[in-house]
């Protein structure tokens, strides 16, 4: 190895070593609301938690103008196809076909990354307002990241939207403290 190459490698190593750690975009999020999703009002499917900055307002979270993380802690096993069917049903009742067509490739990309869950698993749907990107997380593993504030607003509307969310009671429980 020649001396110049060694100096370049050492320089790169120093820059990487000395660079400050990237700040965790979700470090300032705190629990702002929680509730349970039930099937037919009886079977507890998951516990939902909404994490957001303490200063976040409901309208900012719903509009994807503020970072947030929705975490779903599963109490039962579910197949990935069940998530997709439920999401498609709710999105279709909340939005026009024209709206859904605009984000269809992004929804498809998210759905292709869903995996089956077992009791005790959790999914995170975490939106970073500064990068305008959403991460789908399963048990601390990022499965996919999607760059679109519009997508985040539309898809999180399944739980947080004003018009026909999954459950109006769950929406209230998640957002009442914002």
Give the beta-strand count.
6
Structural class: alpha+beta
Tell me the strand percentage band: 25-35%
Report the total helices.
6
Give the integer mean of the pLDDT values: 85
Question: What do you see in this structure?
Answer:
Helices cover 40% and strands 28% of the residues. The chain is of the alpha+beta class. A six-stranded antiparallel sheet has the order 1-2-3-4-5-6, covered by helices on one side. Strand 5 (133-138) and strand 6 form a beta hairpin. The chain is globular. 24% of the residues are buried. Mean pLDDT is 85; it is low at 1-23.
Short synopsis of the structure:
With 178 residues, the protein is an alpha+beta fold. It contains six helices and six strands.
What's the helix and strand layout?
Layout: H1 3-18, E1 29-39, E2 43-53, H2 58-62, E3 68-74, H3 80-94, H4 97-112, E4 122-128, E5 133-138, E6 141-147, H5 149-160, H6 168-175
Antiparallel strand pairs: 1-2, 2-3, 3-4, 4-5, 5-6
Keywords:
178 residues; alpha+beta; 6 strands
């Amino acid at each position: 190895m020649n001396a110049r190459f060694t100096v370049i490698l050492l320089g790169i190593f120093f820059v990487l070593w000395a660079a400050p750690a990237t700040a965790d975009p979700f470090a300032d999020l705190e629990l702002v609301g929680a509730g349970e999703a039930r099937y037919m009002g009886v079977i507890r499917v998951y516990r939902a938690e909404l994490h957001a900055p303490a200063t976040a307002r409901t309208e900012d979270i719903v509009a994807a103008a503020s970072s947030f993380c929705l975490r779903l802690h599963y109490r039962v096993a579910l197949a990935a196809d069940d998530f997709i069917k439920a999401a498609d049903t709710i999105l279709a009742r909340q939005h026009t076909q024209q709206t859904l067509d605009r984000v269809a490739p992004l929804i498809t990309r998210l759905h292709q990354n869903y995996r089956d869950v077992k009791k005790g698993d959790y999914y995170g749907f975490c939106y970073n307002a500064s990068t305008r990107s959403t991460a789908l997380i399963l048990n601390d593993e990022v499965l996919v990241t999607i760059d679109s504030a519009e997508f985040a607003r539309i898809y999180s509307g399944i739980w947080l939207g004003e018009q026909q969310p999954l459950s109006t009671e769950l929406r209230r429980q998640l957002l009442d403290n914002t």
